[in-house]
Description:
By secondary structure, this protein is an alpha/beta fold. The protein has 2 domains: 9-181, Flavin prenyltransferase-like (Rossmann fold); 184-417, 3-Layer(aba) Sandwich (Rossmann fold). The chain is 31% helix and 25% strand. It has helices at 22-32, 43-46, 51-58, 93-101, 107-114, 127-131, 133-144, 170-182, 216-227, 255-271, 315-318, 332-335, 355-365, 405-417; strands at 9-14, 36-41, 85-91, 119-123, 148-149, 153-156, 162-166, 191-196, 201-202, 208-209, 231-236, 248-251, 274-278, 285-289, 293-296, 303-305, 326-328, 342-349, 370-375, 386-392, 397-404. An 8-stranded mixed β-sheet has the order 12-11-8-15-18-19-20-21, sandwiched between helices.
Amino acid sequence: MQVDLKNKTILLGIxxxxxxxxxxxxxxxxxxxxxxxxxxxxPSAERFVSALTFEALTRNPVLTEKSESWISQxxxxxxxxxxxxxxxxxxxxxxxxxxxxxxxxxLLTQTALAYAGPILVAPAANTQMLKNHYTAGSLKMLGxxxxxxxxxxxxxxxxxxxxxxxxxxPSEIFFETAKALLKEDFWEDRRIVVTGGGxxxxxxxxxxxxxxxxxKMAKSLCLSLYLKGADVCYITTTGKEGLPQNIYTIEVDxxxxxxxxxxxxxxxxxxGKMSKVSMNSGDPRHLIQKEPYLFMVAAVSDFTPKYPQKxxxxxxxxxxxxxxxxxxxxxxxxxxxxxGIKTIAFKAExxxxxxxxxxxxxxxxxxxxxVCYNLLDNSESFGTEENEITFITKENKTALKKTDKLTLSGxxxxxxxxxxxx
Length: 422
């Protein structure tokens, strides 16, 4: 899933931590996503990684004590004016404490003080240095002042101690920075439930009935929603590999579990979060509860073994023919209480003649607000990197062109916004 940051400009600040080398990977991720990247380094950071390394990675001059110029834009005032977000990674305890107090005694802290956009901080320091009440207080103060704090990892640190203090994974820092750049008022803090993957109906302890669903479309929707600022609950049979760690994920196996956890997630989503929105340009900002969404992307098995077995069934005891008795699984979409939540079903068909009509019929049969219809060729249509969807409502059927699943997710979410008139 390739996030698109074209037309975005990022300022990357690097301080004197042993994890400064990881900023190279972070810069690569930004560049790969299409962003322009500018770098500012403290003198201590240059002891770990040279400015030349970042110039080679970003194809832009690096702002350092030696390179600052007032006859160009390479100075602590001008460099931030062209950047959409400022991420400081790694941020040492020393820099964190300076930022919270407004101290500007080096180029990086001067740049931060002069910067007017969103600032993100990814701490990297010894556990005790971060736990120290001065540093802990500084992190709280930065949070109060709308800095985004990207929590460090707990692991074996370079100093030999074990604890929280290792720089967050570059992919996590990338996701949080992308979120700061891509979030939208409509989706921000809106609670969303997404189901994904194919259910696994247990035959015995080693066998199950399932389908070819890869879960990639659901993952792409989760990532797109997260980057737009939504509060996502992902219920899945395929895990969360490749997704931000902050996406709340519930792993399930069979249809029964999927139904139970989806019901619970909807109840929580309906409680909602109070979000600030402007009712119109003349009114002060008000607190309202945003209506949640359910994206039912999971491929639910139609049947489950009537008598699932404990242990492993022996082939020698089953004989040459095995008649496995099945029963229908619960109809999840019909069983859910969908009042107060916008529901979008996903329907895959292999019938080019009747598939579209079958998908449209779900609007009334399942009482959903929209259907994403996907016409498949065969089993090889599953697990691909691209998809093609027809977005169906009672008023319209809109064909969304074939493209990668993350881009397609953005198209789906644009259509889904129209289901609510805010």
